[in-house]
Design a protein that fits this description.
about 270 residues; alpha+beta; Arc Repressor Mutant, subunit A; Chorismate lyase; six-stranded antiparallel sheet; two-stranded antiparallel sheet; 11 helices
Length: about 270
């Protein structure tokens, strides 16, 4: 066998042994965004894969060279992405051995039903605790005023709470309530409790509403509160609740990392 043929066969074997590019990573490479640094795009993909447990706790990540080949980027870019993962405590670097996914103590994702508001609320209150981080009375943004048919000068009670499960932040909830209702209670009542239960005490119940489920990217404030990176993908749930007279009572917005919060809807025979 000639030296040239042997080298060709060696290159072919080495190519076959390399990790294959996943569809998710291929999609990333096909849609590189100029407004997001490349190392941050790589970080977001790896963070998602760790959160979704595609890499098990304690499992080694591919080497820097393998990741560079997978993403089609330089090792410097990969190293920067790994630095961010390390700063967030998601990976552990062992000198001379490799990079491993940390065994995190975060709880299993909170799974709640989508259809039954009362059941969903009971499950969230039973398994989490709320901490008020913002509370004030102020005009609402335009898109929220439209739901209430309110004017630019109308005031609303605006409250931002972080819900924790086993001391791990799993969601941020922002609510807007008309001032007349919101003046009846303060942040102390909302600390650790349920806004749904508080409103019931005042004879206010939700009889209908609308729910919109989309996605959002974590801004710097939310990222710090939920212990995720800036720009990390979040599940976004928006609800508008109405009372028996059809009046809007609450505008509710939930932001949560997909790894900590799941919405489940049973499907019936049809």
């Amino acid at each position: 066998m000639s030296a040239t043929v042997a080298k060709k066969r060696q290159r072919k074997t080495e190519s076959a042994d390399k990790p294959k590019l996943s569809k998710g990573r291929a999609a990333l490479l096909a849609r590189r965004r100029r407004d997001i640094p490349l190392h941050h795009q790589v970080f977001l993909v790896l963070q998602d894969e760790i959160a979704e447990r595609r890499y098990a706790q304690g499992e080694p990540l591919p080497t820097e060279a393998e990741l560079a080949a997978l993403f089609g980027v330089s090792r410097v870019t990969v190293r920067s992405a790994l630095d961010t993962l390390n700063e967030l405590g998601l990976i552990e670097r062992r000198q001379g051995i490799g990079t491993f996914v940390r065994e995190l103590s975060r709880p299993e994702p909170l799974t709640v039903p989508m259809m039954d508001l009362a059941a969903r609320n009971r499950e969230i209150v039973r398994t989490t605790r709320a901490h008020v981080v913002e509370f004030d009375f102020k005009p609402a943004p335009r898109h929220i005023r439209e739901h209430f048919r309110a004017g630019p000068g109308d005031l609303f009670q605006r409250t931002v709470r972080i819900r924790y499960m086993n001391d791990w932040p799993i969601m941020q909830v922002t609510t807007y309530i008309p001032e007349a209702i919101g003046r009846q209670f303060g942040p102390d009542e909302m600390e650790g409790g349920s806004l749904y239960a508080i409103l019931q005490k005042f004879g206010i119940t939700f009889t209908s509403g609308e729910q919109i489920v989309t996605a959002a990217a974590a801004d710097p404030i939310v990222a710090a509160r939920l212990n995720v990176a800036i720009g990390a993908p979040l599940l976004k749930v928006v609800r508008i609740h109405f009372d028996s007279a059809g009046r809007p009572i609450q505008h509710f917005e939930l932001l949560a990392p997909p790894a900590t919060y799941e919405l489940r809807m049973p499907l019936k025979d049809f």
